[in-house]
Design a protein that fits this description.
Helix content: over 70%
Number of strands: 0
Distance between the termini: 29 Å
Largest sheet: none
Order of helices and strands: HHHHHHHH
Low-confidence stretches: none
Number of helices: 8
Length: about 170
Amino acid sequence: MDDATRQATRLWTLAQPVVSAFVVAAVRDFAARDDVLQETAVAVVESFDRYDPARPFVAWALGIAQNQVRLYFRRQQRERLVFDDEALKHLAHAFDTTPQAELNALGFLQDCLSQVEGRARRMCELRYTHDLKPAAIAESLGMTANGVSKALQRIRDQLRQCIQQKAAAEGGAG
């Protein structure tokens, strides 16, 4: 591995949580988020020779992520919610200026969500990916709307507890 690749990898590792949080906020589809983030990482490494070390790396990487999100939206013209360039610019700025602890919590949420399985995972997908209301989820899963609402509340409580545990563990390790 040459020095430039080593430096790009090191800087990307530090910027990745912020860029990942930006992509998660901009792209609703779970699977597409991973693809857009991977494409962003590749673009960062491939264009690293054009990076100006006088500029903040995170802001530069967010610019590349904005371009990758735009490309994704162009490929997904059927997407219900598509951000325009100005909205993406403001969103990237917000992530560039958000305190690291808050960005870490978003990363913890991704980790915690990956541990949700079975019916609970399906409920989360229906509610937060497909934007279905509890009544529609209940009909789909053969439950009552009240049962779905209570289950989603328990899932949110478990996710909150998981995030808090991860944050405490990281705080104790640092």
